[in-house]
Amino acid sequence: SLMLAKAKEEWDQEIVDKQAEKERYLSERITPLYTSGLSLSQLQDLCRELHEKVEIVDEERYDIEAKCNHNTREIKDLKIKVLDLRGKFKRPPLRRVRVSADAMLRALLGSKHKVSMDLRANLKSVKKEDTEKERPVEVGDWRKNVEAMSGMEGRKKMFDAAKSPTGQ
Question: Which residues form a coiled coil (predicted)?
Fold first, then answer.
């Protein structure tokens, strides 16, 4: 309770100091207005000057407010990023590495690995059969074939040719 009382005293003193600083600053910056004894044109000029000063101060206030809002948004974004980073671990970008089976076994087993993993050596070799040489290709004039098969006679030949090997 003693600490709370001391903190309250300091807080009250701080408020009084801020108020005194504000009054001192305003007394330096603001000069008192003397409007008595001024003509109408002089009063209008004074109003125009005051209006220009108010516009300048208003523009500065607007700029400061925009900067403050921008900073507040940036702080919120950074807080969200911090929370995200706390919850997750950042994964490093992985690279594709080509390693032979021997190198992989050596890395896993260390110096114990002495067996060669040459998988291609154990494969059987298969000879390719030349199917093109077995099948003779007849190259002829295609126009003769079309003329021979055209009309009803050609269809009869096709029918007889399809029927004859099965009939024997």
Answer: 8-60
Cβ count within 10 A of residue 38 = 13
Domain count across the chain: 1
For residue 12 the two structure tokens come to: 């009250």
User: What type of residue sits at position 51?
Assistant: H
Domain contains 134: no
Predicted TM-score (pTM) of this structure: 0.36
Cβ atoms within 10 Å of 37's Cβ, excluding its own: 6
In a domain, 46, yes or no: yes
